[in-house]
């Protein structure tokens, strides 16, 4: 939160502080800010401008070109050729990234090039598997299927990407490096089932269960990252939260047939996600939670209360009441947060992420 002198004058006008305190308090804050060093990662915090848009958009194009849009023509290079090409690409991106990372105003571009280098890991491992004969699938399965089909054979590619991403993060503190790690964890949550349960490749019920618990584990990791690293130093937990939620929510939602009590529990879980969004200050939780709650309301409308005239009116009243609660919270948010800060034990407050 940024504060200027006018804010202090406003506080004096509201009777929160004495008018005589404004000037000495402002001077003390100015001296405190001048003595405090800026965070080391301040230069890589993303801002919405054309330069950063170009950096991220260009990086995504390169990543898609080297992953999602790989065509069958690349298979003609063979396993050895793919491995060598991936290593050359990665080396070039690392060297260019190191040059840009050393600059004061080009750290974002440098960090993105390091991220592109990490994204070359699956291709390198795939080529290495093919040239060593370790590839278990037939020739009909190629690298272009990695992002579209669920197969236990992709596990080593995902594991290698996670390891290379963690190594890069150890030396380059760039938050977007967590994106390929989180994506690989999400893909692994679907591909790991046949490895854990003896090759049950198409047991979707088991896959959904594994995906759900894998997502919970990923969310726990994201939470631990969130409480240990201040967000002003870079949001290293966002992508872990996003893909962890995807893995958990889809695994939970697609479970299939269930009775009304289980559907109600599903609604309560999604309400819990929405509450977590407030406690953790993460909007992504409220998105998934709201979709889940509305899907439950849709079930009620089209199945349980399909002939009930008053059901839409009841939902309308509920929605207006929730809006009213939001207005009250916005009006008294400072008092509410101050009250919660006084009521909550210190050990609970320490468990919440820090801004």
Written as H for each helix and E for each strand, in order along the chain, the element string is HHHHHHHHHHHHHHHH
Category from helices, strands and their pairing? mainly alpha
The percent of residues in helical segments reads: 55-70%
- How much β-strand is present in the residues? under 5%
Radius of gyration: 25 Å
Query: What is the 3D shape?
Result: flat
Secondary structure: number of strands? 0
Measure the end-to-end span: 10 Å
Write the layout of secondary structure elements.
Elements: H1 5-13, H2 22-35, H3 50-66, H4 78-101, H5 107-119, H6 121-132, H7 155-171, H8 178-191, H9 193-196, H10 204-228, H11 238-253, H12 260-280, H13 283-304, H14 311-331, H15 333-343, H16 346-349
Helix pairs in contact: 1-2, 3-5, 4-5, 4-6, 5-7, 6-7, 7-8, 8-10, 8-11, 10-11, 11-13, 12-13
């Amino acid at each position: 939160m940024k504060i200027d002198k006018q804010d202090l004058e406003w506080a004096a006008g509201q009777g929160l502080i004495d008018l005589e305190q404004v000037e000495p308090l402002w001077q003390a804050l100015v001296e405190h800010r001048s003595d405090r060093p800026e965070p080391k990662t301040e230069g890589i915090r993303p801002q919405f401008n054309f330069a950063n848009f170009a950096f991220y958009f260009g990086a995504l194009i390169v990543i898609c070109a080297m992953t999602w849009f790989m065509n069958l023509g690349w298979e003609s290079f063979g396993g050895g050729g793919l491995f060598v090409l991936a290593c050359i690409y990665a080396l070039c991106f690392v060297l260019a990234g190191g040059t840009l990372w050393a600059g004061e105003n080009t750290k974002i571009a440098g960090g993105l090039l390091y991220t592109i280098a990490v994204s070359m890991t699956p291709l390198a491992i795939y080529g290495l598997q093919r040239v060593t004969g370790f590839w278990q699938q037939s020739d009909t399965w190629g690298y272009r299927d990695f992002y579209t089909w669920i197969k236990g054979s992709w596990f080593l590619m995902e594991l290698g990407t996670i390891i290379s991403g963690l190594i890069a993060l150890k030396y380059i503190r760039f938050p977007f490096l967590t994106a390929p790690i989180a994506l690989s964890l999400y893909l692994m949550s679907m591909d790991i089932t046949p490895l854990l349960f003896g090759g049950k490749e198409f047991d979707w019920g088991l896959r959904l269960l594994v995906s759900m618990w894998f997502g919970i584990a990923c969310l726990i990791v994201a939470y631990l990252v969130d409480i240990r690293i201040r967000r002003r130093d870079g949001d290293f937990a966002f992508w872990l939260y996003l893909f962890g939620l995807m893995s958990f929510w889809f695994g939970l939602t697609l479970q299939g047939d269930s009775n009304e009590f289980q559907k109600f529990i599903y609604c309560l879980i999604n309400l819990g996600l929405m509450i977590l969004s407030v406690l953790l200050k993460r909007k992504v939780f409220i998105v998934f939670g709201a979709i889940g709650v509305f899907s439950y309301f849709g079930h009620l409308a089209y199945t349980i209360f399909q002939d009930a005239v008053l059901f839409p009116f009841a939902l309308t009243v509920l929605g207006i009441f929730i809006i009213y609660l939001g207005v009250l919270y916005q009006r008294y948010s400072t008092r509410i947060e101050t009250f919660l800060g006084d009521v909550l034990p210190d050990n609970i407050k320490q468990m919440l992420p820090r801004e």
